[in-house]
Amino acid sequence: MEQDAPPLTRARQAPPSGLRVLRLIHPFPTLLNVAATAALAFVATDGSPDASVLVRMLLAMFCVQAAIGATNDLFDRELDAATKPWKPLVSGAVSPSISVAVIAMLIITSVVLGATLGAGSFVLLMLGLACGLAYDVRLKRTPWSALPFMVAIPTLPAWVWVTTGEWERDLWWIVPIGALAGLSLHLANTLPDLHADARHGIRGLAHRLGARRAAAVAWSSFALALALTLALGPLLDYDPSVYAPAALVGVACLAASVLLFALKRDDAALQFGFGAIAAGTVVVAAGWLGAMT
Questions:
Q1: Which residues lie closer than 8 Å to 267 by C-beta, 6 or more apart?
Q2: What average pLDDT does range 161-176 have in this prediction?
Q3: pLDDT at residue 290, rounded to an integer
Q4: Average per-residue pLDDT in the chain?
Q5: Alpha-carbon distance 28 to 256, whole Å?
Q6: 65-78: per-residue pLDDT in tens?
Q7: Which runs of consecutive H residues, i.e. helices, occur in the chain?
Q8: Is 95 found in the same domain as 177?
Q9: Cα first-last separation, the chain
Q10: 232 secondary structure, DSSP code
Q11: Cα–Cα nearest to 26, from 88, 97, 82, 77
């Protein structure tokens, strides 16, 4: 499939050594998922989650996401040596053996914490972990690279509602909406590294689509997720006035992602676009689910 010409890029400076070590656990997506868990727990329980349950949920989510991030770096060592030499495993700030030990500790801790939250909660937490590890180990390099995101994104709010004992039938709509958001997040996350990855044999969904089509699908998927939440208004019992501010934030995040790339067309704009889509996803999810409670 024909590939688009690579966007203009700016040289990236290596972060300080302490931050290189921290990057092993991919702090931005890890802490974003922890924050999303906290926000959704408050939404699910009308602002009064059980403190003990909430703490275990946040710690479990931190361990799951940190393990996924560290596993990603472990399996991407050869690629990162060519494209991101400042990353902790490539630069020598962390050894592979230490990385394996950290991953094992994080997985064991997440299993132990998850087991204290109930059987349904445990299954969903492990499903999210399995999605992330499957992506890191194998699916990232295949046309199925978006699948773990499309499963894991709706799994997060489902896990929160099941864990807090607030699950109800209308929440099954999380599945198609979350799948669309997951597709958008995957493509937006891949775009900044698209051409560097392709030069080193990575052939995920975004690489096969090409930069322009991948960006278009990322933005369209997020827009469809937003449209579906709005279209469901007459069918579901939720308060549009509660959801409206979140929907406006989602629209603003999408517009910012598209407009900045239209103006700059470089990797920094694509990286910002991923952050905007990710933040918009969290806000829209919290607002929509909050309007249903």
A1: 7, 9, 10, 12, 192, 193
A2: 94
A3: 85
A4: 88
A5: 19
A6: 999 999 999 998 88
A7: 17-22, 27-44, 51-75, 77-83, 88-91, 96-115, 119-137, 147-163, 174-190, 194-199, 205-209, 211-231, 240-264, 267-292
A8: no
A9: 46
A10: T
A11: 88
pLDDT of residue 18: 52
- Provide the Cα torsion 256, 37, 22, 14; round to 10°: -10
User: Structure tokens of 11?
Assistant: 């040289």
- Chosen domain end from 140, 165, 190: 165
pLDDT digits (tens, 9 = 90+) for 203-235: 899 989 998 899 999 999 999 999 999 898 888
Mean pLDDT of 247-275: 90
Residue bearing tokens 């990322």 = 218
What is the length of the chain? 293
At 22-31, the pLDDT tens digits run 788 888 889 9
Q: How many CB atoms lie within 10 A of CB 137?
A: 13
**157 and 80 within one domain:** yes
pTM of the full predicted structure?
0.85
Backbone angles phi, psi at 204, to 5 degrees: -80, -175
Instruction: Show the tokens assigned to 293.
Output: 């409670």
CATH number at residue 50: 1.10.357.140
